[in-house]
């Protein structure tokens, strides 16, 4: 899908003003102008490698929603028709631990979709504030996340970008977000995405087979990511970090994660073994499902 000149100009302006606070109102106004009139934008919530996120009032629903506007370069790689088709698949999900999609469409060459605005921390924010979480809290969070992932996996959908920033800690429970972007990106030709420089996931949480651009992925890549998330909750950082994405991806492919007990002697040995199995380089050695991983983690924590 070719980008019109106006959208290309907008993309450059958004990138140039990313760190310029004085320009933020202009950016919000430009993004808001690209949405249907039913959405009244109130403020910007953040941005990622794939989309800009706004808080808006949905006048038809009478409630606040999170609006994600796909970055123009991402839309170019994926293609409008393919993205909207994949979003339509995700929109059919009905599960208490998956953030539902409410609406989607295109305006002025920009692709957008909306979901309920979830009040509360992301797991990333919780870890940043507390650094480490108690084991009981980590097990409780993984219980909900695993339930949501198993629901998606049973319908043939793999998330491919499970990470603390996509795990929301709502009052009613923990929910997993951003199935739409991850699914839509992943179904596109991997070579085209690699050439464009668009990431297929977040390096700190990517399974080795995902880092190696293996096309036939299965739920065990999400199990690996979940193991990285548990490691971060209990230790304060994911198993592998580095100065660049390339360095982290190289470690995901070749390095073995240090036992958590070497980093924190208070971690129970059985819990350490459970997480280590989830982080196995060979997916055949991992748990077959997120639910199986949770069951093992829960049993180890109780023991």
Overview of this protein structure:
The protein has 303 residues and is α+β, with helices and mostly antiparallel strands. It folds into two domains: 5-116, 2-Layer Sandwich (Phosphorylase Kinase, domain 1); 121-302, Transferase(Phosphotransferase), domain 1, CATH 1.10.510.10. 46% of the residues lie in helices and 16% in strands. It is built from 14 helices and eight strands. It has helices spanning 5-16, 24-33, 72-78, 80-90, 123-130, 135-153, 179-187, 190-196, 208-211, 220-235, 245-254, 260-263, 269-278, 290-302; strands spanning 39-47, 51-58, 63-70, 103-107, 110-116, 121-122, 167-170, 173-176. Strands 1-2-3-5-4 form a five-stranded antiparallel beta sheet, sandwiched between helices. Strand 7 and strand 8 form a beta hairpin. The longest helix is centred in the middle third of the chain and has 19 residues, at 135-153. The termini are far apart. Residues 1-8, 17-25 and 188-199 have low confidence and may be disordered.
Strand fraction: 15-25%
Low-confidence region ranges: 1-8, 17-25, 188-199
Mean pLDDT: 84
Number of strands: 8
- N-to-C SSE string, H for helix and E for strand: HHEEEHHEEEHHEEHHHHHHHH
Helicity, as a percent range: 40-55%
Distance between the termini: 55 Å
Output the radius of gyration.
Answer: 19 Å
- CATH domain class name of the largest domain: Mainly Alpha
Q: Which shape, going by the Cα principal axes?
A: globular
Strand order of the largest sheet: 1-2-3-5-4
**Tally of separate helices:** 14
- Please identify which CATH superfamily of the largest domain we are dealing with: Transferase(Phosphotransferase) domain 1
Q: State the major sheet.
A: 5 strands, antiparallel
